[in-house]
Automatic annotation (TrEMBL):
<dbReference type="InterPro" id="IPR025112">
    <property type="entry name" value="PCMD"/>
</dbReference>
<protein>
    <recommendedName>
        <fullName>Putative carbohydrate metabolism domain-containing protein</fullName>
    </recommendedName>
</protein>
<feature type="domain" description="Putative carbohydrate metabolism">
    <location>
        <begin position="129"/>
        <end position="352"/>
    </location>
</feature>
<dbReference type="InterPro" id="IPR038653">
    <property type="entry name" value="Put_CMD_sf"/>
</dbReference>
<dbReference type="Pfam" id="PF13201">
    <property type="entry name" value="PCMD"/>
</dbReference>
Amino acid sequence: MKKLSAYTILSLLSISLLTFSCIDEHFFGKSSLKEIRYFTVPGQLGNTQIVEDSLLIRLSVGSRVDISQLAADSIGLSSYARVTPAVGEPQDFNQPVIYQVEAEDGSIVSYQVFISKQSENQQLENSGFDDWYTPEGKNYEEPGKDENTIWASGNAGVVTLGEANVEKFEVAPGDFAARLITRDLGPLAQLVRQRMAAGSMFTGKFVLDISNPLDSPKFGIAFSGKPKSFTVSYSYSPGEVYRNGQGQILEKEDQADIYLLLENRSGSEVKRIGTGWLRSGEAISEFREVTVPIIYGTIPSDSPSYWFPANGQFGSENDEVTHLSLVFASSAEGANFEGGVNSTLIINSVQLNY
């Protein structure tokens, strides 16, 4: 068969692109898509739950938020769709509020938006890690009932080179926990200096960034409480062989990392309001409950260096809290692609204490 020249191929591509660029945007008719894809309000706590089948939107705000004059600060829609009321228009959410979405073709659907207030003593949803779901198109599970969960993990990144390292673990019939494992991803991952992948689970979202993996986790959820401490039930088994991202064996012992950060993100710079940190390499075969105090304001100068925020900015205990980040990792140096092979951290539950 005759091979096409490079010139011929480029010519065909140019003709194809020109043809598609000349097609009217309504060639296939006006769009009938009319979904609300995200919906947020100021003072929101946790993530928004959008139930598409029944056109319901549910979310929570802090106890001090005035929901009688509250406006959405962001609404994501299908292409070419529009919504009424619009972003920035105050509504009384003491009762469900109807948001109408009109598609480009004129068809309309009505969403009911329910907003509830949470108490001052907020707890985290699924803090017992009994609920798990399978993301669409994936073959691994994530903590939470669905994609609206406040919990995320690094599974989406790890499975590009190996198997998931955050998984459901059955403690007893009907009682589950989260098992985090540091995996050796092998020679292929070693080529990009990422041979070791610590199991990590946190409040927030994971958006895979292959060019900069460390930027994939988006830590933190909206939160306004001020707990005095948190209690975690966990077990830990540090791996015996400690490797770095290049596959070299290092004379180091692995440690689990468990920490809670309270922040104020309302200004141009993020301020650390509260810090609670547990880093330990102790092997714990049975679940142990440990209570970690939360220090408000500036932490003592002799604290471990990893306790300090990267930007050096601390707030005071009187400052408002807007976000909470709670992080669990099976290897404390996981961000540097280091850890003990098969180090295993199992989180049974976590509780905020007021």
